[in-house]
């Protein structure tokens, strides 16, 4: 983070970090509280280590981290993680087609386990299949690795599909209350009819008319393997976004020893900072390296089957047909499958 960015951040959340001086002590300056909070996110150091580094009390450091994260969530949510609109959905879909060759795409959906210290008396609620304790971050990411919608705080034992089942995003899309653009024809393929706008996910999610997952099985025909590759290539952006998030904020590489409610706020704040800092001019090399991986990524491993509606299967078939047609194919896809 540059000094200019930090000053800009301080100008936004500084009033929330200001405390009144007393006759017994002078309050910690907002700039120092911000520095402590960002240092905790960026370094992954323990609160006790930061207390020694800044010559502050352990409780002061802990309160500073909580205050900074809460202020970022309160004051910057509407600017950097707003509720999607019809225009923003269209912009996301256009960028996915231009950059990742997947039309009518609203974003890539996936979950990330945030490792935490096991809360007292929580039993196995936070215990996940990776043998750690965690909460789940479910995110919808656009073509530029920005978070568009996030859901934080579900128990670690819940699968990605289970988290999504209780997520407002899917219900609002299904009920048509999220301003999703209407179905439209794929580029240059009006003969396939109108196709709805969809999200792309891995095999952990159920197939829906608005959520595409790979074809299951190993011995697939060429058309289905092409679809799986193209879907995996588009879905890769959410994996890259999680990688960029964890690389910038190293706290996600260690076990977070905070109360789960405070971890929820911390994760939301980190996602907002991720969006605010992810400017192409500052991340050209990182974004180019991530984009280059799209040509070399192996097909996703398929998991079990699920019963999908005929409508959802028909939408997936339309995409599969489009990707093998002259209008929708790309020059390197046959080599990748």
Compact summary:
With 337 residues, this protein is α/β, with parallel strands linked by helices.
Distance between the termini: 40 Å
Query: Which residues sit in consecutive blocks of at least 5 with pLDDT less than 50?
Result: 293-305
Number of strands: 7
Instruction: Tell me the fraction of residues in β-strands, as a range.
Output: 5-15%
Written as H for each helix and E for each strand, in order along the chain, the element string is: HHHHHEEEHHEEEEHHHHH
* Number of separate domains: 2
Strand order of the largest sheet: 3-2-1-6-7
| DSSP helix fraction | 40-55%
Give average pLDDT, whole number. Answer: 86
**Major sheet size, sense and barrel closure:** 5 strands, mixed
Number of helices: 12
Bulk shape: elongated
Description:
- This protein has 337 residues and is α/β, with parallel strands linked by helices.
- It has 2 domains: 3-80, no CATH class; 86-336, no CATH class.
- 48% of the residues lie in helices and 13% in strands.
- It contains 12 helices and 7 strands.
- The chain has a 5-stranded mixed beta sheet. Strands 4-5 form a two-stranded antiparallel ribbon.
- The longest helix has 27 residues, at 222-248.
- The radius of gyration is 22 Å and the shape is elongated.
- Mean pLDDT is 86; it is low at 293-305.
Question: Could you outline the blueprint of secondary structure elements for this entry?
Answer:
Blueprint: H1 3-17, H2 30-43, H3 47-54, H4 58-80, H5 86-100, E1 105-115, E2 134-141, E3 147-155, H6 160-165, H7 168-174, E4 184-186, E5 189-195, E6 198-200, E7 211-212, H8 222-248, H9 260-277, H10 284-293, H11 310-323, H12 333-336
Parallel strand pairs: 1-6, 6-7
Antiparallel strand pairs: 1-2, 2-3, 4-5
